[in-house]
């Protein structure tokens, strides 16, 4: 089976393919195809992917990237040499640790506040250094 996508950040020949959370194969190779990327998947023989399944390439900056297939309810299945589109999804660093979106938003706001405080502290420090050099 082949997937075509805009990007494949972090995808290698060892990248695993999951279907509904279960490992069902791996990437065989990737190559440029016009302005897209064509990726060949090797799937376990007994795996049937329903037409209309959602396929995503999930880039993870901390861990291994994965290809995930969320199966549809169709009774018609893709053939071995079919090519389908895969969406690219970049996970944020916090996605690995905080799955609750409300808590993730609170952590994000806290980190932004800390970042703003550090910028203000740095600016104050630079002003004091500049004043000390003038005296």
Largest sheet: 8 strands, mixed
Number of helices: 1
Overall mean pLDDT score? 85
Approximate strand percentage: 25-35%
Strands side by side in the biggest sheet: 7-1-4-3-2-6-5-8
Q: Number of DSSP strands?
A: 8
Q: What string, H for helix and E for strand, traces the elements in order? A: EEEEEEEEH
Q: Level of helix content?
A: 25-40%
Using only CA atoms, what is the Rg? 22 Å
Structural class: alpha/beta
Distance between the termini: 72 Å
What would you say this structure looks like, in words?
- The protein is an alpha/beta fold and 135 residues long.
- It is built from one helix and eight strands, in the order ββββββββα.
- The chain has an eight-stranded mixed sheet with strand order 7-1-4-3-2-6-5-8, with no helix packed on it.
- The N and C termini lie far apart (72 Å).
List the helices and strands and how they pair.
Blueprint: E1 2-5, E2 16-19, E3 22-33, E4 36-43, E5 54-59, E6 66-70, E7 83-85, E8 87-90, H1 101-134
Parallel strand pairs: 1-7, 2-6, 5-8
Antiparallel strand pairs: 1-4, 2-3, 3-4, 5-6
Summarize, please.
This protein has one helix at about 100-135; strands at about 1-5, 15-20, 20-35, 35-45, 55-60, 65-70, 85, 85-90.
Index terms:
single chain, 135 residues, alpha/beta, elongated
